[in-house]
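Good morning,

Attaching, inline, the C-alpha cells for the sequence recovery test we're adding to the shared suite. The designed sequence is right after.
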C-alpha cells in the first residue's frame, strides 16, 4: 500500500510538472507577478522580503504605517526588491495571543497600525501630543502599550476632527462609511458591545445582543452614536493611511502580498453577524471546530478552535461572505496568499467537545465550485496557494486547475527524502514562490541550532561542503534566489542572520508569538548591498 501510495503521489507530481510546462507561456502572458514599469517588459523573476507591519521600528510599541513603513519601501526599491509580503492586518486581542490569524474581524483594519506621525501631517495631532507617549525602541512588540497609546491619541484626534467640520476629510469619511457599511456597521456594534461587556466574548452576552435582536441593535446605535461614529472614523483612517502606503509602494514598482486566514476567530464580528454560515447551534455554541491532525509541529495536532464553515449555506448564498472578504483583500493588496489552502479541498473538523485535534476527521471542502464562482465574479484571481502541511493529490489538482502559484520552503527540504522532496531546489518549478522559511518556521539560524544533526547532515550533503552556523542563513538565502521559482521571498530575520529569539510564531505555542521587531538601523548599508548583489547575480532585478 505504501509503495502504491508513493507511486500515485509521484505520478501526481509528474502530471503537475507537465501541466506547468504546457501552460508556462500562457501563464507568463496572463499573470505577470511584477508590476510593469512604464513600457518596459518586466523580468519574470523577482524577489521580496517578508516583514509584518508590527515588526517595523516605531516609538509607539509596535510598528505602524508611518515613516518607517515608507523607509522600508525605499529600502526595497534601492535593493531591487519587487515584493513586500505581510501578515493579516486585522484587529487582534490579548485573549488570542495577538495572533493576526485569529482576529476579531476579517474585514476591519488594526487601528494600532494607524500612524500618529501621519495624523500630525493631517493637522489632527500636534508634535507635542506625540512626545508625551514615546516609548524606548526595543526589539519586541508591546501590544498592550500600543493599544493604550493609540487609544489616547486617536481620542484627541477625534475631538480635533469634530472641531474642523469644514475640512475635506469629513466628506471622504462619509463616502467611506457608505461604501463600507456592508461590514462596518456590524463591526462598530460588535466593538461597542465588547466594550460594554468588559471584553466578554459575544456568545456570553445577553440573548437580545447575542442573537442580534434588531430593535436592541438600533437602540444601541442611537444611545452610543458618538462611539459608533468614532469606530467608523478609525477604520476610515486605517484605510486612508494603508492605501496611501500601497500607492507609495506601487509607484516604486513594489507589489504588496497579503494573507487571508482560512478561518476567522469564534469571538469575531464575522461569526456574530453571520452565525448561519458557521457550524453553531441555535444558541451560538460551536459544534465543529477547526484544526489540523498531528504533524511535525505537534504530536496532538493543532486545535485552533475557530468554528468551521457550513459550505452548503455559503453555496446557496453564492458565497457572498467570501466574495466580500476577497473583495476587501484585493483592495488592500496586489496579490493574496490563501493560508491553509488545503482546506478548500478537504479540512480537518474536530468536535467542540474534544481537548486535542487527534480525534478529528477530514471533510470535503468546497473545491472547484468555489473558485469557479470567485472567477465568475472577479475575473482574474491574484491568489497564492499556501500548499504546505499534509497535502494530497486533490489539493495539487485544485491549485493547478486555477493556475495558482504554490509555495516551496527550503527548511522542509533537508530530510532523508532530500532527493525527492518537492521543497528541494532541483525539484522546484517556475510557477512557485520559494522561501527559506515562513512566519511559522524558526529563523534559519535557529533551525540550524535546534532542528537536529540530521537536517545539518543533509544540507551539507546537498551543498557538498561543511557549513557553519554563521554561514547557513546566507546559504539558504542564496539557494532561494538561485531557484527557478519565479519569486523568492526572504524573511528579514534570515537576511539579517538572526537566531531563534527572532522567530515570529511557533505553532501550538500558547504565548510569546508575534513579538519580534526590528531595531532602528538594524537593516544597514551592508544588508542593502547584499540584497542588491544577490538580486543582480540571480537575475531577479
Amino acid at each position: 500500500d505504501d509503495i502504491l501510495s508513493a507511486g500515485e503521489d509521484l505520478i501526481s507530481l509528474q502530471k503537475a510538472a507537465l501541466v506547468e510546462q504546457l501552460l508556462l507561456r500562457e501563464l507568463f502572458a496572463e499573470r505577470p507577478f511584477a508590476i510593469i514599469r512604464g513600457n518596459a517588459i518586466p523580468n519574470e523573476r523577482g524577489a521580496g522580503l517578508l516583514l509584518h507591519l508590527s515588526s517595523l521600528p516605531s516609538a509607539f510599541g509596535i510598528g505602524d504605517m508611518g515613516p518607517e513603513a515608507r523607509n522600508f519601501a525605499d529600502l526595497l526599491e534601492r535593493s531591487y526588491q519587487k515584493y513586500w509580503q505581510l501578515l493579516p492586518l486585522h484587529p487582534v486581542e490579548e485573549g488570542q495571543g495577538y495572533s493576526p490569524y485569529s482576529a476579531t474581524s476579517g474585514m476591519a483594519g488594526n487601528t494600532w497600525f494607524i500612524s500618529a506621525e501621519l495624523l500630525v501631517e493631517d493637522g489632527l495631532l500636534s508634535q507635542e501630543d506625540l512626545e508625551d507617549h514615546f516609548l524606548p525602541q526595543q526589539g519586541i512588540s508591546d501590544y498592550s502599550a500600543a493599544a493604550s497609546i493609540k487609544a489616547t491619541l486617536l481620542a484627541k484626534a477625534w475631538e480635533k476632527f469634530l472641531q474642523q467640520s469644514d475640512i475635506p476629510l469629513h466628506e471622504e469619511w462619509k463616502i467611506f462609511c457608505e461604501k463600507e457599511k456592508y461590514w462596518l456597521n456590524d463591526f462598530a456594534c460588535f466593538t461597542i458591545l465588547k466594550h460594554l461587556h468588559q471584553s466578554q466574548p459575544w456568545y456570553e452576552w445577553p440573548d437580545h445582543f447575542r442573537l442580534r435582536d434588531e430593535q436592541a441593535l438600533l437602540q444601541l446605535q442611537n444611545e452610543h452614536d458618538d462611539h459608533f461614529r468614532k469606530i467608523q472614523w478609525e477604520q476610515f483612517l486605517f484605510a486612508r493611511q494603508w492605501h496611501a502606503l500601497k500607492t507609495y509602494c506601487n509607484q516604486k514598482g513594489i507589489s504588496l502580498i497579503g494573507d487571508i486566514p482560512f478561518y476567522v476567530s469564534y469571538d469575531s464580528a464575522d461569526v456574530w453577524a453571520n452565525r448561519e454560515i458557521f457550524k453553531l447551534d441555535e444558541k451560538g455554541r460551536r459544534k465543529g471546530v477547526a484544526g489540523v491532525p498531528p504533524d511535525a509541529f505537534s504530536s496532538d495536532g493543532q486545535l485552533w478552535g475557530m468554528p468551521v464553515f457550513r459550505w452548503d449555506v455559503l453555496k446557496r448564498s453564492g458565497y457572498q461572505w467570501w466574495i466580500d472578504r476577497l473583495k476587501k483583500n484585493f483592495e488592500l493588496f496586489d496579490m493574496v496568499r490563501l493560508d491553509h489552502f488545503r482546506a478548500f479541498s478537504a479540512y480537518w473538523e474536530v468536535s467542540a467537545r474534544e481537548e486535542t485535534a487527534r480525534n478529528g476527521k477530514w471533510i470535503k471542502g468546497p473545491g472547484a465550485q468555489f473558485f469557479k464562482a470567485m472567477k465568475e465574479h472577479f475575473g482574474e484571481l491574484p491568489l497564492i496557494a499556501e500548499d504546505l502541511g499534509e497535502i494530497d493529490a486533490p489539493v495539487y489538482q485544485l491549485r493547478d486547475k486555477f493556475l495558482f502559484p504554490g509555495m516551496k520552503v527550503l527548511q522542509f527540504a533537508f530530510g532523508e527524502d532530500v532527493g525527492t522532496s518537492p521543497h528541494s531546489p532541483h525539484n522546484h518549478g517556475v510557477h512557485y514562490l520559494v522561501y527559506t522559511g515562513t512566519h511559522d518556521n524558526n529563523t534559519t539560524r535557529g533551525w540550524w541550532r535546534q532542528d537536529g544533526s540530521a537536517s545539518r547532515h543533509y544540507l551539507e550533503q546537498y551543498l557538498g561542503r561543511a557549513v557553519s552556523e554563521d554561514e547557513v542563513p546566507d546559504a539558504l538565502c542564496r539557494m532561494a534566489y538561485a531557484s527557478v521559482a519565479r519569486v523568492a521571498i526572504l524573511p528579514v530575520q534570515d537576511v539579517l542572520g538572526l537566531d531563534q529569539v527572532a522567530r515570529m510564531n511557533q505553532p501550538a505555542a500558547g504565548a510569546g508569538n508575534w513579538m519580534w521587531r526590528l531595531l532602528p538601523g538594524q537593516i544597514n548599508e551592508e544588508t542593502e548591498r547584499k540584497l542588491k548583489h544577490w538580486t543582480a547575480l540571480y537575475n531577479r532585478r
